[in-house]
Amino acid sequence: MHPRMLAVSASILGLMLAACGGTAAPGATYKIGAIFDATGPASSLGVPERDTVKMLEAELNAKGGIKGPDGLMHKVEVVFYDNQSQESQSVLVAKRLIEEDKVPVIIGPSQSGTTLAIVDTTQKAQIPLISAAASFKIVEPVADRKWVFKTPQSDSLIMENALAYHKKAGHTKLAWISVNNAFGDSGRAELQRLAPKYGVTVVADERFGATDTDMTAQLTKIRASGADCLQIWAIPPAASTVTKNAFDLGLKLPVFQSHGIGNQTFIDLAGPSANGVIFPVGKLLVASSLPDSDPQKTVLVDYTAAYKTAYGKLPTTFGGHAWDAFWIAVKAMEKAGPDSAKIRDEIEKIRNFVGVTGVFDFSATDHNGLDNRAVTMVKIDGGTWKPAE
Fold this sequence. Notes:
By secondary structure, the chain is an alpha/beta fold. It has 12 helices and 16 strands. Strand 15 and strand 16 form a beta hairpin.
């Protein structure tokens, strides 16, 4: 047969095999940008997020990658950057991902502040951003956040659950102490907005820096406030420090935290003072206690096993936020390919996606997609997590 005819015949055979459901041929690599706070004060968030995505990238590529809308299999290349827990560095690497690496979608960063710092950059470039940070300001108002999504529960949802627990426990005089950054400010704003709804009065309002190493002065003021509970809003290491300070001061108040302490780092740094701390968070930490009927249980158990096999330790809720962000990007790219505008549109169409953080139902008016099913109350007891009564 003439070589030209042979080439044509081979092409036709390839098309026939694809049409008959054969293994799709490889296509161009799909890129995903990733920014995590892997060093600096928020590294306890960023490291498990980065490691989770590296694990998922390897797993997905071992199976051939993403089957795109063209019917071809596309390997995935995640382009990672560490923003060093700095807002300025976050902007720098976001621009690099967009202008030099030409990624069509970005996942991360880890903190509210480092995320909010790049919202304008991604919006102007029309690159979808799927954040792993909590502040409701990241995705609201949606009219001004067309290109921005996030996977953690919003602080408004977390605060509702915390205050509902306080009300149930009979707490009416709350002492508040929070980190002086975007995460702390957002939580504080939600407390002030929602406390009256639950019959709670804020009798003390203190703040501290993310790198502060002693909050005894603020806690001494709280001790004189007449409070019947202490609500802390921060991430480790500061969240652990203020908990230890309260313990060492002999503060006789029940201690509550936010979902910012959903990792072993908090317990390790806080030591015995962590015992008894109660906080609202996703279900990952108590996955083994969930009924088999819970739609998330299989996902949570499988993620825990995979992460432990890969890294020799248990995952964190923060790694779970990155798990969700990665798979949301992948699901969108299955239908949109590497087209940023189409990826954005496809994310908005995702419904009933069972993730680590919760069951996601995105829409044009909801770029977080979570509801109250994504939150449970957890208590630290004997250095481990248990469902709070």
